[in-house]
Amino acid sequence: MPSNILKPHPKAIDRRQALQTLLGVATACSAWAAPMAWAQSARPGQSEGRLVVVFLRGAYDGLSALVPHGDANYYALRPSIALAKPDGTAQTTLRLDNTFGLHPALAPLMPLWRQGVLTALPATGSPDPTRSHFDAQHQWEIGTPGKSGNAAGWMNTLAGSLAGTSADVRAISAQSIEGAENKPQAVGVGEANPQILAGSAAVQLVAKGQAATRQGAVGDERTRDAVMRLYSGQDEISKAFRAGADSRRQTAKTLSNAMSESTTSGMGSNDMNKDISREMQLANNGAGNAQGLLLDAQHLNTLMRQDRRLRLGFLSAGGWDTHANQGNALGALANNLGNLANTLVQLRREFSQTNDVVVVASEFGRTSAENGTRGTDHGHGNTMWIMGNRVNGGRVHGGWTGLGIGNLHENRDLPIHNDFRSVFAQLLRSTQGLSNANIDKLFPGFAWDKSLDSMLRT
Amino acid sequence: MYPNQTTAAALPRRNALKVIAVCAMSPGLAGSLNAYAQASNPFEKTQSTQLFEQWRAMSRVGYGPTPQLVRALQTASSPKVWTVQQIDLAYAASQVAPLMASDLSSLNAPLPDIFDAAQRERQARAAIKAVTADSAGNTNTNELLNNRNNRRMDFSEPADPLYFNRSMVQKAAAWRLGACSQPNDENPLLARMTEFWFNHLNVYSGKGAVRPFIGHYVVNVARAHALGKFEDLLLASARHPAMLYYLDQFQSVADGSPAGQGRLRGLNENYARELMELHTLGVAGGYSQNDVHETARILTGWTVGPNEANGFRFAQRLHDTGRKVLMGQYYPDGSLNSGEREGEQAIRRLARHPKTAARISLRLAQFFVSDSPAPALVSALAQTFQNSQGDIRVVLRALLESNEFWHPENKLFKTPMDFACSALTTVSSTDKLADSTDRRRLILTENYLSEAGQPLHDWQTPDGYKFDAATWLVPEALTRRADFALAITRQVSDLDFLQPYLSATTRAAIAQEKPALRAGLALASPDFQYK
Questions:
Q1: Which among B482, B501, B526 has CB closest to A218?
Q2: Contact A247 B512 (CB under 8 A)
Q3: Could you read off the pLDDT of A340-351 as tens digits, one per residue?
Q4: Gap between the Cα atoms of A316 and A318, Å rounded
Q5: Mean pLDDT to the nearest integer, A316-323
Q6: Residues A3 and B408 sit within 8 Å (Cβ to Cβ)
């Protein structure tokens, strides 16, 4: 119980290492212990790219988001939950081309599609066949299909590798935590400690919702001094606490300032606030599930705008596991997709510089056919979305062989035509300047997928 | 919050042992590891070892110390003896209804009444929707429904029919937080095991249909079977409306069953998969996608029974009567007609499977011993589980008597739930009136848990919460513990009984501060974050 006899458990080492690094403790077993300048800005003179991943936990139904309206099998497989063919009226699929269209709740994304900054890959995922949410998420987050043991999250590894490459070295404030070289390069908003950000590199983890804007006890000088005295030791928990107090105050100040600025300048905030207060209402009623995502995205925007050292962002939303009564144009899934669309529009406002990229993905897809309760069960391949100026958007990329039974994985699910790691490899090489050797450190054994070479503009 | 009653747990047998006076100048536990290692004769443990073991017993078998528990530990012949005694006390307590403040008791109402009230809420909401649909057909129910404050835990008035579900969720939270923080009213080990099983067989209060049944599920599934046979617990969860709704089992029927208007209904794999992946075998338990499908077929027709005392009904006409093969065995077997029995047999078989024994044993060891428990301990527990046909009491005895449970190096960092309940426990123990839990404190606690990422009964996915430090020891989140500690101790002058358990460094730091801050700082201290 006393903290001076604490030793991290071997199993917990990855996430605990994050703390140790954050606290300036050498981590001998980490390949990234010494930050290396292993990534160069992809295009000299351009802004450094920032990558935001929005992860939909629970396996969202990609066939309802990117609707294959041109495939007769789609309607045969889903008699009661298919989205109606596009006919220009409300509640029907929004036509993108002869094969695909958008769910009507994704209408806010149409302008981005037309501008050519948004693309979708309809049959991507992990080659591992697991249909367990939790295993699939774990493997996706550590970047290694089939691996179940403890490992660092790939965004954490990436954050560690980017450390020191930032051209912008900010002056260290008086309250700065120990060691500027350990300033986080990655920020996650909403989850306690997502696996994808767990590892030896320092990351910033911010609370979900309004809580992120409050400094709490450490905001009051007297109380802070008293609490800090309790945590003045050199043990792990004390260092973590001090780093947390620092980071939390900074986070809350940044977010509060941004909020008061937007309300005084009226910068599009009224609509936003209306959106967000509606989100909150939904949340209070336990209605929507991507509820809160919009506010978390707004916080992510603010934090990454204010601290240019933050190059990687992570957001997630649950509630996509639609086993029953998922609806079609209306219903629970439609509400969630609507929240997602508003979130992406919001992220686009911030992440619209040359090499910025926003990715939306899920751990796996759902069955091609509806089940016996007007929902869908756990599947395999799924649609991934990519948004950014470098994206060769306005069209679908990656493989697609339709929903004919002979073309389905195990006669039931979408196959995987493009490995999710290959998609990220393209993005990381183009917008972060990573070499294949370095990408292989994030995704051991990944293979370059030439069929995706046209996905990005050079 | 409860009538002031003394339960067996609060009356430890006096073992004619001398009460060990706790010296206020004790060095705290900082030196206890050395002391423990050097205690050559277990009957001559040093005082700091005593304190260390008392803390471990109170914080892991329950949710931390109260003056009364401290006295009980001091008068027991050893912390280990006290700990093992709790097993039978907890079992006995689980066999009778829990103490419950009268304004919370409806959470445990007969199931048909809960179904009725939930139905009335649906009708009331539908009526509002009909009135407020705008020209585009959109409804603004949310704005209407939010025009009132429902955040108070005041249940003195009967619930508005429109807010029945919400009141049931809040009552469940109020009872849970009371039960985990009032060791006089609820045996602390029983509260712990209720937490463990609820988490293992998680249901989610955010899913509409589940909401009114949350409290009933906690009391009649997790608590009632907390120290019984695992297969009985599993079957109770399988048949409870909260689980039937949560994982969609209530509507899974034989493929091609008629659904009116010429439409057909059929299978839903959700419950069948999680039953194997999470409740029993584990993801590497050797089942295939086909086994998931066959289990789903076996369980077709298991649905809610709004008029049944146990809330469960087996609908034979919606059951798939064909032959199924689950992990190499036929269902129904030769002696049976196809029906409810084959589902019960399949669930019992999964419950007794060696992979299940291993999975439950690992999770129990992680809950009570360490994030990475020794494989030898886990396999010994799994063997005990199998030898006793999944008798949880027998497994717990092996666990709490193990050297690993008492070993100082097997540390556990408190989860937000541990921290919230232990803070609430210490604070409540200072109340002059032991029969009323301050509801404002419960609201504070509930809000803290939400902010910390462990909202009560509100984890969306069936895997339940993680318990390890890797998940919860996060810089910013640590500072939120301090917020809660300071907020919940506003009217608490001192927590002197905690002093001996804090390190000298911590005690010195606290002593510097003004008295009003001291109780909060004790709870916010690094020492208090471990159990």
A1: B482
A2: no
A3: 999 999 999 999
A4: 7
A5: 94
A6: no
Residue A38 host element (H or E):
none
Instruction: With CB atoms and an 8 Å threshold, state whether A371 touches B269.
Output: yes
What pLDDT score was predicted for residue B466?
Answer: 96
- Place A261 in a pLDDT band, splitting at 50, 70 and 90: confident
Q: Are B225 and B94 in contact (CB under 8 A)?
A: yes
Token pair in block for residue A330: 């209306």
Note whether B76 and B85 are within 8 A (CB). Answer: yes
Q: Which residues contact B481 (CB under 8 A, 6 or more apart)?
A: B416, B419, B452, B524, B529
Beta-carbon contacts below 8 Å between A and B = 231
Residues of B in contact with A235 (CB under 8 A): 526
> Which of residues 166 through 195 in chain B touch A, CB cutoff 8 A?
none
Interface touch A230/B408, C-beta < 8 Å: no
pLDDT in tens, B263-278: 789 999 999 999 999 9
pLDDT tens-digit map of B30-85: 434 333 434 344 445 677 899 999 999 999 999 999 999 999 999 999 999 999 99
Give the closest-approach CA distance of B233 to chain A in angstroms: 23
**DSSP H or E run through B496:** none
pLDDT of residue A174: 26
- Residue in B122, B205, B479 to test binding to A, most A beta-carbons within 10 Å: B479
A194-198, A313-317, B21-25, B433-437: range with lowest mean pLDDT: B21-25
CB contact under 8 A, B208 and A207: no
Q: Is B473 on the interface with A (CB under 8 A)?
A: yes
**Looking at chain B from residue 267 to 306, which residues have their Cβ under 8 Å from any Cβ of chain A?**
267-270, 273, 277, 283-284, 289, 292
Residue A192 contacts residue B472 (beta carbons within 8 Å):
yes
Residue A290 pLDDT > 80, yes or no?
A: no
Q: Length of chain B in residues, anyone?
A: 531
List all residues 6 or more positions away from A392 whose beta carbon is below 8 Å from its beta carbon: A116, A119, A454, A455, A456, A457
Q: Which residues of A touch B370 (CB under 8 A)?
A: 9
Q: Which of B470, B471, B479 sits opposite A244 (nearest CB)?
A: B479
Query: Is pLDDT at B13 greater than 70 in this prediction?
Result: no
Nearest to B372 among A9, A14, A206 (CB): A9
**A98-130 as b/e: b if 16+ CB within 10 A:** ebbbbbbbbebbeebbeeebbbbbbbbbbebeb
B476–A207: do the CB atoms touch at under 8 Å?
yes
Query: In Å, how far from its chain's centre is CA B214?
Result: 12
Interface-testing mutation among A227, A281, A363, with chain B (most B C-beta atoms within 10 A): A227
Question: End-to-end distance of chain A based on CA atoms, in angstroms?
Answer: 56
- Residue A28, C-beta contacts closer than 8 angstroms, at least 6 positions apart: none
Q: What's the pLDDT band for B318 if we cut at 50, 70, 90? A: very high
* DSSP codes of every residue in A115-176: HT-EEEEEEEE-S-----HHHHHHHHHHT-TT--S----HHHHHHHHHTT--S--PPPPTT-
Q: What is the C-alpha radius of gyration for chain A, rounded to an integer number of angstroms? A: 22
- CA distance readout (Å), A208 to A153, A343, B360: 20, 15, 31
What are the b/e assignments for B514-528, b being 16+ CB within 10 Å?
Answer: eeebbbbbbbbbbbb
Asked whether the predicted pLDDT for residue A44 surpasses 80, the reply is no
> What domains can you pick out in chain A, each with its CATH number?
53-168+182-214+290-452 (3.40.720)
Compute the average pLDDT of residues A183-192: 92
- What is the distance between the alpha carbons of residues A396 and A122, in angstroms, rounded to a whole number? 8
- A115/chain B closest Cα distance in angstroms: 30
* Cα B2 from Cα A265, distance rounded (Å): 53
Q: Is the pLDDT of residue A82 over 90?
A: yes
> In b/e form, how buried is each residue of B328-339, taking b as 16+ CB within 10 angstroms?
eeebbeeeeebe
